[in-house]
Every structure is written in structure tokens, then in C-alpha cells.
Amino acid sequence: MRAEQQSAFILHHRPFRDTSQILDVFSREHGRLALVARGSRGQKSRLRGVLRPFMPLAMSWVQRSDLGTLTGAELRGRPLQLNGDALLSGYYVNELLLHFLHRHDPQPGIFDLYVRVIQSLCATDAAAPCLREFEIELLSQLGYALNLEHEAESHEPLQGEQSYDFRFEQGPVKVARSEGPLVFAGTTLLAIAAREFENTDVLRAANRLLREVIHFHLGGKELKSRKVLLELHRQRDSAG
């Protein structure tokens, strides 16, 4: 199979042999795939400054096995620049896609969602709200949509002052206690559903909820980028 000038991003790259590298690519029309970019790390390669994460690319390749061969790549649109927390957040987004997406499974909706979150991270200093919105929408498009508005057993609308234990394969279930790893007030779950992330308490609760939900759906796999991001924030807090 030959693909020409496909909209794509590089999620990850690693060295291969002397001057080549293997790219984990996310293409709008072909999904996630692995390509070898021959000679791309060589001093004279015209691709040295192009094959980087977060760059909107038009890519061409030949696929004869599970590992394809890159035949061309060029920038499509303005280069995107991520720095600081935004850069670490971008790597976290990439790592989520590497874990969740199957190879050769086109996901144009998720590709468009990815473009939006990377553009948002470039344009704001507040990375956390962007990530929480991305996580909620990603889970929905993967078939793991969060029920944040109705009680799981009765299907009745959540009550503001009632406490609920969020259960991964059901949703909110009424409980008498107000403490617990995944216990939230109805008002909090409804605020998360409404994306009221300008409220720091709601944002913090969304982070707690989504961290555990994603951990569950990944089968307990640890995300390296999230660990780095949390450690960086912890160091900043202790320094302050």
C-alpha cells in the first residue's frame, strides 16, 4: 500500500541503526502506524528538522508489512511550539494515544481532537483544563464515555448534596459516606460534566477522577509523562 501526502503527527520516535529512526505516527485517514525513516538522522538529511512531535505534517509512505517505510514528509501549516508544562502535557497526550489506539485503525474524530488540544496547549498557560477536556472527550470517542449526570442504578438525575461513589463500569452510585478515593458530591460531578474547570476545586476533582478512570482502562499501566509532570509540580510546590 502506498499513501501520499497524508495529514499526520509524530507521537514518538526512536533511533534505528546508524542514521535512521522508527516513527510512531498518527495519521488522520490511516490511524496509528509505525514507519522507518531511513537516513533521517544523518547530518545531510532534509528531514532532520521536520520529523518532530507536535509538527503538523504531510507524510507519504509505503506499507508492505506492519513496519512501513517513510518516503516523504513536509510541514503542513504553521509549526507548533510547546514549552514548559505545555510540552510535558503534549507528551502526556501522545502517550495516551500510543496506549489507547490500535494500529491501522482510522480515528479521524480523535485526530481532530488531538489537533485541537495541541493548538490549545500552544495558546494557553493553563494546561490542566485543556488536558481534562481532552481526556473526557477521548474516553467518549473510545467508547468509555463517563456518566456524570445520572445515578447508575436508578438512572435518576444526580442530586447536588448527595455523595456518590464513582464505579468504573457503572458510574455514580449513592453512598452514605462523603470520603473515599472516588467519592464525590453530586454538585462536583455535575460541574465536571459542565467543564467548569475555572473552579480549582472542580479541576482538582476532575484530575482525581480521570486519573483513576484512565488507570483502570489502561489495565494499570503507568504513564511516564504523567509521573514526570506530577513530580515537577510537586517540586514547584515544595520550593514555593
Describe the structure.
- The chain has 240 residues and is α+β, with helices and mostly antiparallel strands.
- It is built from six helices and eight strands; from the N terminus they run E-E-E-E-E-H-H-H-E-E-E-H-H-H.
- Strand 1 and strand 2 (20-27) form a beta hairpin.
- The termini are far apart.
N-to-C series of helices and strands: EEEEEHHHEEEHHH
**What percentage of the residues does DSSP assign to strands (E)?**
15-25%
Biggest pleated sheet: 5 strands, mixed, barrel
Mean pLDDT: 92
In short:
By secondary structure, this protein is an alpha+beta fold. Helix content is 38%, strand content 24%.
Task: Throw out a few tags for this protein.
240 residues, alpha+beta, five-stranded mixed barrel, 38% helix
SSE diagram, text form:
Layout: E1 2-16, E2 20-27, E3 31-37, E4 57-62, E5 67-75, H1 84-100, H2 108-123, H3 127-141, E6 163-167, E7 171-175, E8 183-185, H4 186-193, H5 200-217, H6 224-239
Parallel strand pairs: 3-5
Antiparallel strand pairs: 1-2, 1-4, 2-3, 4-5, 6-7, 6-8
